[in-house]
Amino acid sequence: MAESVDIFLRAKHRTFNGLTEDAEREWTGPFCFIQAADPQLGLMKAWRDGDCDGGGDEWAEEVELTKQAVEAVNQLRPRPRFMVLCGDLVHAMPDTPFREGQERDLKAALKGADPSIPLVFVSGNHDLGNTPTPGTVEQFCSEWGDDYFSFWVGGVLCLVLNSQLFYDASACPQLKEAQETWLEEQLSRAAASSSTEPKPKHVLVFQHIPLYLKTPDEEDDYFNLQRAVRQNLLDRFKKAGVKAVFSGHYHRNAGGCHDGLDMVVSSAIGCQLGGDTHGVRVVVVTADSIVHRYHSLEQLRAGGVDQDLRKLLQA
User: Which of 51, 72, 77, 84 could hold 120 in an S-S bridge, CB 3.0 to 4.6 Å?
Assistant: First the structure.
């Protein structure tokens, strides 16, 4: 495992911020967390150069933006319970030039995160390759932690998924099957009533590729999951009581709420492909709801969390 990454990998070891899983299964009141996506070191220059399949030979801009995000999150009060980065940590694909340097510099930028705000990493297509292999998945796991896992925080069950295995697992079918088996077990336990296990107050999912961008019946696109896969996951998530799915990948804000399941697509810390600004999403968890809002980095640094969200945390 790469040096200095251990402080980021608490979730990998099934503990959270020094607390055991059992200690975090109980609801203790409202809290907030930060959802971010796509720092993708190297994309901004590659996008300007029109060479997104290669390029990426400069990434100082994304390093600075990541540092700004960390500084903004560090100063928030009350402190977020965690910060999750929903994939595409770097732009360089596995086993290509610049990959090692981008990962090294991203870790250095993230090292400034307050240790009381654990970082949770989600794998994206640039982290694993558009068609992942056992080797690229292992590389990611050795650098950043498991590609799928669950953790509890404040009575909420969080599922981190490898969405690339939903998108194209042709080179690693056994890994896809293993995640499917694990996911079905997690969803079944979340939906079941038990005298020995507390039922989660909410169930949340984090993945890189959105289920959809606007509506569940939209056409297949590079930026969403295929319709058959999408519908299968939607049906299973709804049955298990999943409240929200958080993703990135689109480099724009999007999403929608259908049949009580919120599909949240957040724009990037790094390169913007639409009209949004560099930012992160503040998510407030109450006993009854999941309330979220995208904040620009400048807005978050200058004014913190919006006042109406802060009031929800005081309830």
Answer: 84
Q: Which tokens is 5 given?
A: 């990454």
Q: Average of pLDDT values for 30-44?
A: 98
Q: Could you count the other beta carbons within 10 Å of the beta carbon of residue 287?
A: 11
CATH 2.40.440.10 is held by the domain 11-313: no
Pairing of strands 156-160, 83-86: unpaired
Segment 2-12, tens digit of pLDDT: 333 343 444 44
The predicted structure's pLDDT at residue 19: 52
For residue 36, give every residue at least 6 positions away whose Cβ sits within 8 Å of its Cβ, in sequence order, or none: 69, 83, 84, 85, 86, 248, 266, 269, 280, 281
Task: Delimit the domains of the chain by residue range.
Answer: 11-313
**Calpha distance 36→119 (Å, rounded):** 10
Q: Which residues contact 180 (CB under 8 A, 6 or more apart)?
A: none
CA dist., res. 46 & res. 55, Å (int): 5
Q: Which residues are paired to 156 by β-bridges?
A: 153, 202
292 vs 4: which has the higher pLDDT: 292
Per residue in 83-109, is it b (16+ CB within 10 Å) or e — as a string? Answer: bbbbbbbbbbbbeeebbebbbbbbbeb
> CB-hemisphere CA count at 13 Å for 186?
21
Residue 241 CA, chain-centre distance (Å), reads: 19
Give the residue from 175, 145, 150 showing the smallest Cα distance to 160: 150
Contact 151, 21 (CB under 8 A): yes
Asked whether the CA dihedral 34, 37, 42, 43 is positive or negative, the reply is: negative
Structure tokens at 305: 């969390």
Per-residue pLDDT tens digits for 202-237: 999 999 999 999 999 999 999 999 999 999 999 999
